Amino acid sequence: MEGCTDCFTTISTSCLENDETLVFELKDEDGYGRMHRSSGMFIDTILDPIHGDHFLKFPARNSIDFSIELQKRVPPHTVFLLNCTNPDAFQHVLRTIQSSQDADRFAPLVALPQLMCDNESYTWTWTAPADCSPIGLSGLPNYVYFISYSEHEKRFRVLARFRFFVCSEVIETPTISPMPPFSSSELLCTSPLSPGSPSSLNSELLPSSGHQLQRLPSTASQKPSTKLVHSATIVLPDDPEDSPGFRSILRELGRKTECFRGDVKKLLKRIQELSEAFEFIAGALGRFMESVLTASATCPAAFQPLVETYVAPSLQHQIRLFKSTCSDLIHYVFEPLERIYVNDLKLATVKRIEFEEFSKNYYTSLSRYLANKTTDMAKDESKYLVKKKDFELRRFDYYCYIQDLHDGPKTQDILAIFTSYFYQQHEKWVHSSESIDSLHAQLDGVRNGLADLTLGLNDLSKKRESRRRKIILETTVESPIREKTNEKPIKQSFPPGGLGLYRHQSVGAASNLSDKSSLYTPSSPAKDGNAIIKEGLLLALSKPTSHTEVSMVGKTSWHKYWVVLQRGKLAEYVNWKQKSLSLHNEPISLAYACVKKAESTDRRFCFEVITPKFKRVYQATSESELHSWMRVLQETIKANILSGVNQERTEFVSKGRPRGMRPVSMFSESIQQHPKSRKSPAAVLRKAFSGRKNSSWGFREIFRPEPERIPSMNLEKLHESSKIFISMLCKSDPENLHCADCGSSSDVTWCAINYPVILCIECSGIHRSLGTHISKVRSLLLDSLSQQLKQLLCKVGNTNVNAVWEARVHESDLKKPSSRSASIDKQAFIKKKYSERGFLDIGNVDAKAQLVEGIRTNNIRMILTALAAKPNFSRDSCDFLAVIKPDTSQLYLLELLLANGLVIPPESKLTGLVSPEVQAFIRLKRPSGQ
Ligand SMILES: [Zn+2]
Predict the structure, then answer these.
(1) Where does it reside (predicted)?
(2) Which residues, listed in sequence order, are joined to residue 341 by a DSSP beta bridge?
(3) Same domain for 819 and 861?
(4) Where are the beta strands (DSSP E) in 15-120?
(5) Is 461 within the bounds of a domain?
(6) What's the DSSP call for residue 914?
(7) Would the pLDDT of 830 be above 80?
(8) Domain of 146?
(9) 814 CA distance to ligand 1 centroid (A)?
């Protein structure tokens, strides 16, 4: 009896002779059963040598009643009984029922509804088939299964089973009888109910295989079955006598057992490894799925479409499969096989030694018995017979044991174990593959969607590729710096987000800036004066240099600053590549600055921003950037000046206006924002000129990047003297109040010393653009003009200059511009007047003679005319110097000559040529190195 002991206690039958009852008792969970006759007599069994099954043996009958007792309820399943002639037929019936939907698919089964009640017994009657024509074992084998079926799970469960054999009357059966007189307690029906039997596992259907025992009418049609080949190396007799042949069989089987034991041991180890591997794979798959889900949460676009539709369900199937394969290997293969190994194979040596020991004892006692000549023959005989019986019993047991291991129940058990496992394995893999296959549509969907996405990405990569090509082809690498004008609102900054974004993100970091208000305000549509005009990467030394510092050679520590032009100021930021962006210096106000290309450095792309206080040299990243920066800075300076002038005028007109109501401009803003800059030159100048009510003079002036620089400490003093100088200048010639070229009366604070002519700020810019060989421009206010130069300017004046340089202006088509003329007209006029010398009337003037005569007679017009005729200074310098008055009264003329290219002769020639006073003056003017 095998199976679920929870359900059945005993199955008894009273089919034996003398109405005796045969009782199966289920003892423990493993299905160990005990069977005995009620009389205590021995139970006959029969062995199927081909199939290896032990059967309870019943004499020929037409029917047998079995009484089945139920131990406890087994709801909710219905319990059935199935009787068939071989295990294959049993499997076939079950499969038919499982796969069919017919109402009568349960027909082959005998339902046992009574078993639903506690402690009831049910009688099942076996009836012999009508056309029973047994062959082979001369009888009919019967397999009886108690099964339950779960509609929910759609599967069967074997509760218990047993086998019996009904002999045919005609042929004498080769039974293993007469059986030795076993005591009833010894008769454990171990053979068919071995602990290692897979059926003891209460498992699902147990596929079992084997030969059809007989060609008997089967309860079900035959399913295809594989012919199993039995090991035929040793032909085992049923009950051989102890002989050399028997002993040699034993030895051979013993040797085989040893080998087999080693094989099984190795096999167990491999099964364990395999199971661990499956477990590892299941774990790895689980971890894989976990990290895919995590990544999917972080970046849904990369994973989510596939994870939701395919990856998660597919991986779950796979994990389940590997987990169940792992546990199946342990429960259905390893454990039962290990039981066979421990309970049977490992005992082989012990049993052999025991048998040999017993055999030795028996033959000793046989010798003793035969040699004994005592009178008490009967006693000896009976003693010997007992010993012989014991020995025969031992011999039989050992023979059965060793037979079972090679061609009996044990081999069948092992086969059943593996068949069962692989049968389940097959079903599970097929099921899993079907499940995963059903997800294929989703996988397809994602792939098709991906193809569409790829098309979109191709467009993107094409765009990027063409952009890359453009960058490569550009001769100068385009820098990320962008130019902005007031008309263009800032759309985007660089680095991504720009400083604006930066400030937005880290207000805390911005707080360490010395001047928060100088930081970027969010880009607003221009014209509010706050927009970033231009920003970008520039290199510069850590500190500004002084005006007198000429060479930048040897200065190696150039730093990269992010420079921002905004509100008329140039702000430098350090650490712009990191988070902690901070202002490097006080933003440089461009109010009094000028910009020019730097020539005093050996580095490329350099330009200078010159303020009254210092000179700042910047290096741009490319030629185009250099020009871009210079242009933008110059425009800004100009715009600053214009708005500043207007501002000044407004201030003068509305002096009584309350301070807080002053119109806002860049200028006033900068004054308000930077208390320090209240002491700026503009403020000083405003103070200096405050007495001058009717001023047509501006206060704005721009530094020129020429060598004579005003040390900042003398600035205030200079402006005091400038005030006096300018008033002197205007007194000497009222035309000096107006620009010599355009007649403008505002910002007439410039001059070109080689003519010498007084100019407005705008015309001075145009003069500068002509080059120093045409015009040497100076600021009347901010350049350090020598006394002689000031004297020269006062003595000459615009009236004299224009008398020479505009002598024939009325004959020209070009009209003299006014202060309101367009800049382009002013440019054209100034170019015509000075570069092309278009309005001169000098005819065939002898420049040398005129100049000598002019100096001698101190005739300014004559001197100017002579200079306009370009005297040859490289040849005649000494002649001109010779006529200079020996006192210092004509030193101012020397300034004029020097500005026009007078070549200073060597010291040796000077002596005797000019007076010592003049020589001392010339010595001061001599360029260093001569
Ligand atoms: Zn002008």
Answers:
(1) Cytoplasm
(2) none
(3) no
(4) 22-26, 33-37, 45-47, 54-58, 63-70, 78-84, 110-111
(5) no
(6) B
(7) yes
(8) 2-201
(9) 16
Angle between helix axes 666-673 and 623-653 (nearest 10 degrees) is: 90
Distance CA 345, CA 338 (A): 10
Q: Using 50, 70 and 90 to split pLDDT, how confident is the model at 44?
A: low
Please tell me the predicted confidence (pLDDT) of residue 132.
53
Give me the mean pLDDT over the 213-240 stretch: 43
Q: 42: how many CB neighbours lie within 10 A of its CB? A: 18
Mean pLDDT across the stretch 420-445? 88
**Contact between 595 and 637 (Cβ < 8 Å):** yes
Torsion of CA 34, 37, 40, 42, to 10 degrees: -90
Closest CA to 636 of 801, 467, 471, 484: 484
CA distance from start to end of the chain? 131
What is the rounded distance in angstroms from the CA atom of residue 198 to the CA atom of residue 188? 19
Q: Which of 402, 462, 409, 411 is nearest to 251 (CA)?
A: 402
Output the pLDDT for position 671: 34
CA of 626 to the centre of ligand 1 (A): 28
CATH number at residue 536: 2.30.29.30
Q: Please report the pLDDT score of residue 813 as a whole number.
A: 86
Nearest CA to 662 among 683, 648, 675, 674? 648
In whole angstroms, give the CA distance from residue 789 to residue 869. Answer: 22
Same-domain status, 394 and 506: no
Can you tell me the mean pLDDT for 923-928? 75
How many structural domains comprise the chain? 5
User: 722 C-alpha to center of ligand 1: Å?
Assistant: 20
Residue of 894, 895, 891, 900 whose CA lies nearest to 880: 894
Identify each DSSP E strand in 768-851 by its residue range: 777-779
Report percent pLDDT > 70 for the chain.
Answer: 66
836: CA distance to ligand 1 center in Å?
A: 18
Length of the chain: 930
Asked if residue 782 belongs to a domain, the reply is: yes
- Please report, to the nearest 10 degrees, the dihedral formed by the alpha carbons of residues 242, 245, 246, 249 taken in order: 170
Q: Cα separations (Å) of 155 from 77, 204, 322?
A: 11, 8, 22
Between the CA of 793 and the centroid of ligand 1 the distance, in Å, is: 17
Is a pLDDT exceeding 90 seen at residue 801? yes
Give CA–CA dist 722/705, Å, rounded: 19
Q: How far is the CA of 744 from the centre of ligand 1 (A)?
A: 5
